[in-house]
Amino acid sequence: MRLTNLLCPQCIELHGKPGSKEEVIGRLMELVARSGRILDKKALKAAVFEREAQGSTGVGDGIGIPHGKSAGVKDLVLSAMVVPGGTDFQAIDGKLVDLLFMIVAPDDGGDMHLHMLSRISSYLLQEEFTGALRHAATAAEFLRIFEEAEEQETAQTGQQKIRTPESARILAVTDCRTGLVDTCMASESLRQKASRMGISFKVETNGAGAVRNPLTPKEIHACDGIIVASDIPLDLKRFEGKYLLRASSAQAIGQPEALLKGILDRKASVYMMGYRRKIPSK
Questions:
Q1: What is the pLDDT of residues 111-142, one digit of tens each?
Q2: 3-155: CATH class
Q3: Catalytic annotation present for 11
Q4: Would the pTM of this model clear 0.85, i.e. be above it?
């Protein structure tokens, strides 16, 4: 599903006013309600603020992605807002937020919102793309930037050599205590950097009780190493005997190259049950 099918012009505001976090989220809710797909605004508000109470969805670099699932939503829908000069959204990096998206989905929508978070994350990690959105003069231009990005992605996907899962050289697992946004951003940051470095790569994303793109025993056996970017304890039994590098979600988002090089340069440790044993570099 294309993002431009979920984001209508009337759900976009390019000159949002700074305010408290609650006020900004409230405005994003008003915008998303313009889609006509909201059944119960009160239920939706409760779901979004319940998620926000777990940790800020201000993911850094001026970006915020509040989201939620609720029976008060008829279908997956997005709203977007640009706040010139930025607003205090209690972002994880402490910076003001000036580019915001709200993603809401029905309770029975499966993992649609996970897919959409992943898609948006992949675009928002590109500075040229976010810069263009921040300077869009009209809602139509804002949507056109998304359309061009999606068309370019489709063209590149068709041209890329298809890699089988068995060829993955570096694997990763992402999970985050505060929810799906950081998990998806961490996954996309690692994936994009691995692609630019020419590294065959696969990432398993965990969040909201769902596992996407799970690593198989065959892939784990064949890989050169695994990056575990998680802010919560995970069962690592399946990685015994493999080079393993642990990191936080923030490190995966901000320092993906260092983590990938950590595996390539054998700066990781070999994981053994209950402890990690350092293996000298060859």
A1: 677 777 878 888 888 889 999 999 999 999 99
A2: alpha beta
A3: no
A4: no
